[in-house]
Amino acid sequence: MSENALTPVLETSHLGIDFGGLTAVDEFNIRIAPTEIKGLIGPNGAGKTTIFNLLTKVYRPSRGVILLDGKDTRSMSPVQVNHAGIARTFQNIRLFDKLTVEENVKIGLHAHISYGMFSGIFRLPGYWKEEKRAHEKALELLDIFGMADQADVRADSLPYGAQRRLEIVRALATEPKLLLLDEPAAGMNPSETAELMNNIRKIRDEFQIAVMLIEHDMNLVMGICENIVVVNFGKIIAEGTPKQIQKNEKVIEAYLGSGKES
Amino acid sequence: MLANLINGISLGSVYAIIALGYTMVYGIAKMLNFAHGDVIMVGGYVAFCSITYLGWPPVLAVLASVVVCTMLGILIEGLAYKPLRNATSLAVLITAIGVSYFLQNAALLIWTSNTKVFPNIFANLPSLKLGGTQVAPVTLITVFANIVIMIVLTLFTTKTKMGKAMRAVSEDKGAATLMGINVNRTISVTFAIGSGLAAIAGVLLCTAYPTLMPTTGAMPGIKAFTAAVFGGIGSIPGAMLGGILLGVIEIFGKAYISTQLSDAIVFAVLIIVLLVKPTGLLGHKVNEKV
Amino acid sequence: MDKIRNLKKSTKAAFLNYGIVLLFFIVVQILANGGHLTNSFKGQLIPIVSYVIMALALNLVVGISGELSLGHAGFMSVGAFSGVIASMTMAGSVGNGGLRLLIAIVIGALLAGLAGVIIGIPVLRLNGDYLAIVTLAFGEIIKNVMNCLYVGVDGAGLHMSFKDTASLNMAADGKVLINGPMGATGVTKLSTFTGGILLLLVVLIVIQNLVNSRTGRAIMAIRDNRIAAEASGVPITKHKLIAFVTSAAIAGAAGALYALNYSTIAPKKFDFNTSILILVFVVLGGIGNMTGSIIAAALLTVLPELLRKFADYRMLIYAIVLILVMIATNNEKVRVFMRGLGKKGKDAEVKEEAANE
User: Fold this and answer.
1) What is A1-85+178-262's CATH number?
2) Do A117 and C242 touch (CB under 8 A)?
3) Which residue in A11, A249, B238, C174 is deepest, having the highest Cβ count within 10 Å?
4) Pairs of CB atoms within 8 A across A/C
5) pLDDT tens per residue, range A52-106
6) In order of start, what are the domains of chain C with their CATH numbers?
């Protein structure tokens, strides 16, 4: 890995947020290299999803800096952050239920389809050309997960596992530099999880992007993450390779102390 | 000037009582009960019939009106809103509009569109002289009723078990369920209280402005919702503050700007409040869960 | 035939709608030529087309954008009165009635669209219930303002006042166009059934092509999940505004068509009840379903004329149907029950499975 030589795709310093006097995340400092797969783990309620929400500007940070490819995202909206290169999936699936699978992916492609409202209404040549391109691109992306044959199915009639995969395809369609996956394997059986691991690796290799994932399935985390960040009570308690994390006493304590963890 | 201020406070106090019903239901069931204004109208008709046709004394008529509206509130909630507990706000709002239209048109069939003249139930009470201005007894009673209702409701929500349950449901329905609170019953009680208040507001409104039609409740209902938003939806003192301010603004608008545009002025207030401070004067912000 | 089978579902629905409108036009023409149409039905033709267009406009906001507008009669009003003013001022200069109707409709649409921008920019930041109530408020404000509006025309051009006709300060040859609460009087009827059908077809093309394009997809994505749409790089306010303003402009066009069918038209015609009536069309036809809107608006405009005996019960029945439709389409238990009745039982199982995990 040449990660140290390159500018990190994402770098945060002193990142934090308070909710009505309660500190949810504090002193969150990480660096993600351009093609790194990073795990973000921690007990329930540790603030993992809150961190994703900070990075994507769903929440406005109370303090700290987020540098995306060296650019400060301070003044960016969630939409601008996406255009700048962060895409994500959601812990509780958020698909466009009444749209088809293909249309869901085309929403991901929205910023990369270049015809305007009037070309659309009057069906000018730009509409036909760009829609054809978008259609082909959407099928190509769906094919990564073998979902091209379900392109015309309504998103809410997909089985649960397929919905999670569709969220990943949609995020990927926005052409991110960094892909944030919030519990991608939740609700999947072991064989589906194994396939997902392969696909995450394949996406990273093919698109040359960085991936950060929140996951409770330790087999998946330890299996594909090159580095892992452990948070508890909104703060980083450990950082390192899977091997280092498995031996880290603070981590073991955090997990044992918090009781059951799947 | 003083007369206008008194009129404004009087009208505002009626808005405040209606707004309390809106604010409680919005705070707890998270829905805009569009039919709330029409419950006021029903309250007015029940009191009217009790007095005019049955010859009941006003106190009994008010009581009858409260009982009927309370039951009506529970009935509406159970039949129309409860099946939509997990539906989108769009669906719930359209249903509420349906209920509103149902009540108005049912009233139209029962009582016809002819205007009924509401009797002055406080005719025997003396009026008060305040700096050369006559203050009608209905004004005094309205303001007094408003203050009593606010104090009682504040005590109810802070001191009683049901009141605490209401606040819990308004904070987090899921967590309240886990704490063993019966959410459905709590919402039902909220509708009962709101509708009972609507009955009182109906009688006061009709006494102050003694014309009664099937559409009597619609405008005051929408304006009272404006008042609730103005004061901060979900807040009891906010409803009172918003109601009185709105009443004063409306009366002054009528007196000094234009009679025809007074409604437009009230709605302009709503729009400005929502744009400048969507949480209202005394409300607080609720974060969306992601 | 194969070609038709390969078309997308949305494209098929679009062509179905054009077909319905054309069929309606042809049937009416044949009946009219044969002398089978009563005068009262002939009088209903343009209102029918106007309400169908209104229902389509509102469905764009309610069904496609997922926001409730309770003030669409206000946009219809803006279109109606600006259309009337435009047509009356042109009376001397543009001789052709059809051309004047076209210009009046375009002006009505532009001004209603402008009202949509003015209202939409501030209010579309609001969510759900608040947005609905603010559109209601704007609808009432428009009605109130129209009630106080006086417009006249003389050699020097248009005069406007919010007080009375005397303060218009017109020359002796001046003519009052809009007379406060009385509205427009002495309007030259310009609207024709054919003109209405052409407008309806144009509206259908605009709405359906918009919905089946990048922009429409974005609007529907925001409806289905605002946060996910934002995270996918779709600007929210811009797209909500496009839907809202397009809808307002179409409502304005419908207003102009409607108003120019009568010799007098008062502002109180476009009140909250009209907004609700159009909402009833949209809900009964199926939220988001354009074919449904067309049929529901047409039938519910014609039926009350045919069933005058039940006029007293009409709104009561509308109210009950509104409630029942919402419960039937939104209650989980009812939905599962309905699926169980139909052949789609499998669908519900998949969903329940997902919910259980």
Assistant:
1) 3.40.50.300
2) yes
3) B238
4) 116
5) 999 999 999 999 999 999 999 999 999 999 999 999 999 999 999 999 999 999 9
6) 2-149+176-306 (1.10.3470)
